[in-house]
């Protein structure tokens, strides 16, 4: 490895100080776009060159797999293949690797499967069924949250504190859920971290080995680590104490998932000798964007240090603000502007991003993009790995890896149809429960003619054939690449014909499902013997740990639609943030709680600071039948930094023309004489979606009426009479 240090010239003095700092704990606290991620990458480069540290001794943790990949390719560009030995990935991926290596010590199956969020919910649903509890009464999502909280506080099911009836249910479901996971050799996301802590706490010799290996530990997006992750870092770093963390408390946006930006304070307490480095130059955004973002974040009171951040770039264009008539008009405006930007040809389409608070907002945007004929990339939504055909085939692979994975077996036992109906399934489940075995073991017993279960000859033959095939795939998987194995499975079960039969049902257009199968084969391609010790295990671990952002194809040149949460760490030439309305951003769930409101503000701050050159902010006058109030965050931006977008008179598509006409009508509305009001306080009304409620306030708006209604279920809503479809009851 050469000693070429010319990369240091691409850093300013404080960045260079961080990159070339001597050993010891280091904390880089700095605002967005100040080069934290660059500093972290260059620190690794510096360790490799100037300090001659072997990549084997370096562990770097990123927030997404995509960020890890980018960092790896940057380092490979500098150093070539030798960085291969570097341990680089998310906390979860890294822990999964540790656990696979040390599985025997923890009594884990080395081929354990990882349950993603959907699998976890399904396992909870099954636990509810096992306990004869109604999943409509006990929401699986709420149970999962409670179980996850307990796990992260190291509370076992037996010790779950019971204060309410719901706690009692949680404790029972938690216990059953754990049994199910154990029987399936499965770990959920929480387990990956917790079992790693357990590994290190209970096996000091193992800990010593890892401490010795990872002499340098580096962490990006440190403000979004949770307590368990921090504990892991402390354990691993306590010997060499070379912990290099970069972060920004103002960008902490995963509090709802257990992230705790007080880890920054803990770090300073645990490592009082830590060198704190601040970076004060922002290289990403124009001065205008930066000033607006800072004016917003300054309103937060929960801040530990006000960071100075100066724009390295000039003022640039003002921020554009657009008041749309409704969500369709908003989407049409964005699509139109995106099209203009692309047609102007000065920027790549992939340099444009549209961000929003909730996934539901993407629908209107997708429609507008489709209508305008603009290809786009969507982060989230129905993800590739959540599509039915992809899930089916992955379930087959998981079964090959580990036949005791009950969830996968349930998924594929009758896919394609083999005549195994719900009644047979219930009998097999009962047998498994009674014998305390996995479902696959129960199937094997049933095939062998176990006394506890009687099956018709046809079903038995089908099951025997299934067991036989799974065994054969298992026997052959050692010398097959994952793609080859997949092809064999697809052939033997007749999956192509099955997919075709689904398509004929007209549920999906033009062979899209089969395209997904081909795409999966492509993704599996590199997982070959030789390239990986255990290609199948590696493939499945990678698939389970993919996050929304990771599935973004970076080579595709199209604008991106994504949530604000998914946008952290990224940057774009032009950013649109849609839905700047009270109740959406800030989200209605945050309005009663100051802490949550500040997290919403940080989220907006993260969104704004993704923009390099241009920022568009939009909100709607009416959304989903309701009148909206512009977000308080908009008022926090100095007026002189904003410029209103001029509504267009020349619309491209006929429907967009219709929409802008409606907008014009609204603007002219005050010219009409208001008709006599239909509503008055005290009136009982019914709304098609919100149900029954009581009118508490009304006032004329142009030719229309604004009605405030207290609905029994939906709470207080402001509605526009002409659109609301309110029926007067009394
Ligand atoms: N010294 C520098 N000279 C020129 N450009 C720089 C310099 N440092 C960083 N940059 C560029 O500024 C942009 C922001 O850098 P980077 O993404 O590392 O910031 P960050 O602090 O990690 O931001 P965030 O908090 O949003 O994650 C990148 O495009 C990076 O290449
Ligand atoms: Mg960064």
Automatic annotation (TrEMBL):
Q: Which UniProt keywords are listed? A: ATP-binding, DNA-binding, Helicase, Hydrolase, Isomerase, Nucleotide-binding
Chain segments annotated as transmembrane: none
- What ranges does the record list as Low complexity composition bias? 648-658
Task: Indicate whether DNA-binding appears among the record's keywords.
Answer: yes
The segment(s) forming the UvrD-like helicase C-terminal domain are 287-569
The signal peptide stretch is none
Q: Name one GO molecular function term.
A: 3'-5' DNA helicase activity
Per UniProt, ATP binds at: 30-37
Question: Can you state which reaction this protein catalyses?
Answer: ATP + H2O = ADP + phosphate + H(+); Couples ATP hydrolysis with the unwinding of duplex DNA by translocating in the 3'-5' direction
Its name, as the record gives it, is DNA 3'-5' helicase
């Amino acid at each position: 490895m050469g000693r070429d240090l010319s990369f240091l010239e691409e850093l300013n003095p404080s960045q260079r100080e961080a990159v070339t700092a001597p050993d010891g704990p280091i904390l880089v606290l700095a605002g967005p776009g100040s080069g934290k991620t660059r500093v972290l990458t260059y620190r690794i480069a510096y360790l490799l060159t100037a300090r001659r540290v072997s990549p084997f001794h370096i562990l770097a943790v990123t927030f997404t797999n995509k960020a890890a990949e980018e960092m790896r390719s940057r380092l490979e560009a500098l150093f070539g293949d030798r960085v291969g030995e570097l341990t680089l990935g998310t906390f979860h991926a890294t822990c999964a690797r540790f656990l696979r290596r040390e599985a025997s010590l923890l009594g884990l199956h080395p081929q354990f499967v990882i349950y993603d969020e959907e699998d976890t919910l399904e396992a909870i649903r099954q636990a509810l069924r096992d306990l004869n509890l109604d999943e409509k009464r006990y929401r699986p999502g709420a149970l999962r949250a409670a179980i996850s909280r307990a796990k992260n506080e190291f509370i076992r099911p037996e010790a779950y504190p019971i204060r309410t009836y719901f706690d009692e249910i949680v404790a029972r479901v938690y216990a059953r859920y754990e049994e199910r996971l154990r029987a399936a050799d499965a770990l959920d996301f929480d387990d990956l971290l917790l079992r790693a802590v357990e590994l290190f706490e209970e096996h000091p010799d193992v800990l010593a080995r890892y401490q010795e290996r990872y002499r340098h530990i580096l962490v990006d997006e440190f403000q979004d680590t949770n307590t368990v992750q921090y504990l892991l870092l402390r354990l691993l770093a306590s010997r060499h104490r070379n912990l290099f963390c970069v972060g920004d408390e103002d960008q902490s946006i995963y509090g709802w998932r257990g992230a705790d930006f007080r880890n920054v304070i803990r770090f300073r307490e645990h490592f009082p000798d830590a060198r704190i480095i601040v970076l004060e130059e922002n290289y990403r955004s124009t001065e205008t964007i930066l000033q607006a973002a800072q004016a917003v974040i300054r309103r937060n009171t929960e801040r530990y240090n006000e960071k100075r951040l100066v724009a390295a770039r000039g003022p640039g264009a003002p921020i554009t603000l657009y008041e749309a008539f409704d969500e369709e008009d908003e989407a049409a405006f964005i699509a139109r502007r995106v099209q203009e930007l692309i047609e102007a040809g000065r920027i790549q389409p992939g340099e444009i991003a549209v961000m929003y608070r909730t996934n539901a907002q993407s629908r209107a945007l997708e429609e507008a993009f489709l209508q305008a004929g603009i290809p786009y990339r969507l982060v989230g939504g129905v993800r590739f790995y959540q599509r039915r055909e992809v899930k089916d085939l992955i379930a087959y692979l998981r079964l090959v890896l580990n036949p005791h994975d009950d969830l996968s077996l349930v998924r594929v036992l009758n896919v394609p149809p083999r005549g195994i109906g719900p009644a047979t399934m219930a009998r097999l489940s009962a047998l498994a429960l009674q014998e305390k075995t996995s479902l696959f073991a129960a199937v094997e017993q049933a095939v062998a003619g176990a006394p506890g279960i009687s099956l018709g000859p046809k079903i038995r033959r089908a099951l025997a054939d299934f067991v036989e095939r799974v065994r054969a795939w298992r026997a052959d998987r050692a010398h097959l690449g994952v793609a080859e194995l997949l092809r064999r499975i697809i052939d033997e079960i007749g999956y192509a014909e099955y997919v075709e039969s689904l398509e004929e049902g007209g549920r999906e257009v033009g062979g899209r499902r089969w395209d997904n199968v081909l795409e999966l084969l492509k993704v599996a391609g590199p997982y070959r013997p030789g390239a990986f010790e255990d290609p199948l295990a590696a493939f499945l671990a990678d698939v389970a740990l993919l996050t929304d952002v990771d599935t973004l194809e970076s080579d595709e040149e199209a604008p991106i639609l994504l949530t604000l949460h998914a946008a952290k760490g990224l940057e774009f030439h032009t950013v649109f943030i849609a839905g700047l309305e009270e109740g959406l951003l800030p989200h209605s769930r945050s309005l009663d709680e100051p802490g949550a409101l500040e997290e919403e503000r940080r989220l907006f701050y993260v969104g704004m600071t993704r923009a390099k050159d241009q920022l568009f902010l939009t909100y709607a006058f009416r959304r989903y039948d309701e009148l909206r109030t512009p977000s308080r965050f908009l008022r926090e931006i100095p007026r002189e930094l904003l410029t209103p977008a001029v509504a267009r008179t020349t619309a491209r598509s006929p429907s967009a023309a219709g929409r802008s006409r409606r907008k014009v009508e609204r603007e002219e509305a005050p010219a009409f004489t208001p008709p006599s009001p239909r509503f008055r306080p005290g009136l009982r009304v019914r709304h098609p979606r919100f149900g029954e409620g009581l009118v508490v306030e009304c006032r004329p708006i142009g030719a229309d009426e604004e009605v405030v209604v207290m609905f029994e279920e939906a709470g207080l809503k402001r509605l526009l009479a002409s659109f609301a479809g309110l029926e007067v009851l009394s």
